[in-house]
Structures are given as C-alpha cells and as structure tokens.
Task: structure prediction
Amino acid sequence: MNNVRFLVGVREKFPSIHEIASLYSIIVFIAYGWTSVAVFWKLHSWSYILSPGEIVVTLAFIVTARLLKSVVVLLIFLFVSLVLPANWIRNKFVVRCSMILCSFTLWVVIFTMSTSTHLPDLGDILIFLAGFSLTSVFGLLLSERKSHVRRFLNLVGDQLIIFLYVSLPLSLVGVLIVILRIV
Result:
C-alpha cells in the first residue's frame, strides 16, 4: 500500500510525456544545432586528412556524444522536477526548464568566448554564476508575468518536436556505428 502511494506521489510530480518531449526537443535543437554548425565548419578540412569512412565514424561519435549529453540534461531537469515541490517546476515544466536551459546556454557561450585566450580564473567563474543566476531569475519572472512569453516557449517546444524525428534515428545509427567500431 505504501508503495502505491509513493508511486502516485511520484507520478503527480512528474511532467506529462508531451511536456518531456517538448523540453527534449528544445534540448536537441540547441545541442545538435550548435554541433551542426561546428561540424559544417570543419567538414571541408576533414576531407583533406580523413577518409570518408573515418569522417562517418567521427560523426557517429559526435552524434552519440550529443545524444548522451541531451539525455543527461533531460534527466537532470526530470530529477529536479521530482525533488522540488510541484508548483516550482512541474506545473510549467517546458516554460521554466527551457528558460533555465536557454540562460545556461547563453552564459556557457559567453564564458567560452571570454576565456578562449586564457584559463578561466575565479573572476570568470563568478561572472558566469552571477550572470546565469540573474538571467535565469529574470527570465523566470518574465515568463510568470507575461503570458505571451509562456505561449511562445510552449509553441517553440511543440514546433521543435519535428527535430526528434531526425535526431533520434540519426543518433541510434550513430550509437550502432560506435558500438560496431568499439567491438
């Protein structure tokens, strides 16, 4: 009986499958989009030093790494949804998590660009943490007060689900190639 109550309590704190898919599509769009830009930037130079088979294996490893990263990010948000009270994350799962994700992505890009010529020091890390925290809080407050921001983020999540139809099969092929390459 206690197990049933526990499972019901967990289910109440867990977002719907549609919300999970919407957030995952946003994660995939950011992760695979950034990777696609980097790969297309380097692909021409790879053709001079790698054979076509080696390029395919390299792409398979890249896609597999993106799959693992995107699943880990999704699992972190799901775990946070289970740990925190339902009205903090779960009630507006896609909106709040995508706002935090976009803020984090923005500050990772800023941090990477600003520390590309030197090793990060304590000041760089503090700026990253303060900027990420302030941007996240501002974005969450904005999404609470403005309904058009919530509608926009939900619409983006719904529209980006189409990327799952491309990324998941591509990722599974990449995983298969990686497994065959390792074995």
